[in-house]
Amino acid sequence: MKLIFEKGSEGRKLSILGTCDVPVSLPEEQFLRKEAADLPQVSETEISRHYSALERRAHGVNNGFYPLGSCTMKYNPAIDEEMAALPGFTRIHPLQDEESTQGALEVLELMEKKLSAITGLDQFTFQPAAGAHGEFTGLLVIKSYHRDRRDNARTKIIVPDSAHGTNPASAAMCGYEVVNIPSAPDGCVDLDALRAAVGPDTAGLMLTNPNTVGIFDKNIEEITRIIHEAGGLCYYDGANLNAIMGIARPGDMGFDVMHINLHKTFATPHGGGGPGSGPVGVRKELGCFLPGVRPVRGEDGKLHLQAPEKSMGSMRSFIGNFLVVVKALTYVTMLGREGVLEASRNAVLNANYMRKQLEDIFPAAYPVTCMHEFVISLDELHKETGVSALDAAKALLDYGIHPPTMYFPLIVHEALMIEPTETETKETMDEAIQALREIYQKAHENPEALHQAPLKAAISRPDEVQAARKPRLTYGMDA
Amino acid sequence: MNIPEELKYTKSHEWVKECEDGTAYVGLTDFAQSELSDLVFVNLPEVGDDVEAGETFADVESVKAASDVYSPVTGTVAEINEELLDAPEKINEDPYGAWLVKVENITDTVDLLDCAAYEQLLEEEA
Amino acid sequence: MGTFVPGTPKEQQELLHAAGYRDFDDLFSVIPESVYLKSPLPLEEGKSELETEETISRIAEKNKVYRAIFRGAGAYDHYIPAIVKRVTTKETFLTAYTPYQAEISQGVLQSIFEYQTMICALTGMDVSNASVYDGATATAEAAELCVERKKTRVLISASVAPEVRKVVKTYAFGRDTDLQEIPVKDGKTDLEALKAMVGDETACVIIQQPNYYGLLENADEIGEIAHGVKAKFIMNCNPISLGVLKTPAECGADLAVGEGQPLGMPLGFGGPYLGYMASTKALMRKLPGRIVGETVDTEGRRAYVLTLQAREQHIKRERASSNICSNEALCALTAAVYLAAMGPDGLKEAATQCYSKAHYLQQGLEAAGLKKAYDGPFFHEFVTVSENSAQLLKKLEEAGILGGLLLDETHILWCATEKNTKDQMDEVICLAKELQKGGEKA
Question: Which residue among A341, B87, C117, C391 sits deepest, i.e. has the most Cβ atoms within 10 Å of its Cβ?
Answer without folding.
Answer: C117
